[in-house]
TrEMBL record:
It holds the Pfam family DUF1349. InterPro entries: ConA-like_dom_sf, DUF1349. Gene3D superfamilies: 2.60.120.200. This is DUF1349 domain-containing protein.
Amino acid sequence: MTVPNLTSLPFPLEPEGAPPCAFETSGGSLRLTGQAGTDLFLDPAGGGTPPDAGRLVGVPPQGDFSLAARVRVEFASVFDAGVLLVHAAEDRWAKLCFEYSPQKTPTAVSVVTRGTSDDANAFEVSGDTLWLRVTRSGRAWAFHASTDGRWWRLLRYFSLHEHEHEHEHEHEAAPGRTTVGFLAQSPTGQGCTAWFEDVTFTLSAPADLRDGS
């Protein structure tokens, strides 16, 4: 399936995962609908079948970059979310989510998976829109969220590599297979639609990941 390019991205997007997602692109915006029961989460408690979800991802240029979008979600069921995704391997990925909490409140959430997933709720949001940003800075990744698209809160600063020797090896290989992109998930619901608007991509990282810039 061919994905029309987002004009703001310097790399093409390709569909991955199952069941496949439905999507529409227009200029620098993307509308993505995930099917029922879709998720990417490896429960640290174990058990169950590893989940999957249709998504649109691509290989970014080497070096530092920031990918940001204004995310709007049609929330209906718990854990429905619009997601910016970093995917390095079958058991290593990270999600920056605008998600519907069990308290029925839109929430900024992050998940980092290295064999198993963690789950970190950051802050609640009034309304159905939140700005999300993924940054690669050197060998590290950073997740930011913003309620106004101007002042950014740092949610996570992390690596997707477990050991230093692996880290060194993967640093050379990562640009060829680590992908970034977009996901709409609906683990407990009948599907979820998310809009990713004002998508921007810059070949740089903030000089200070913690000062709100």
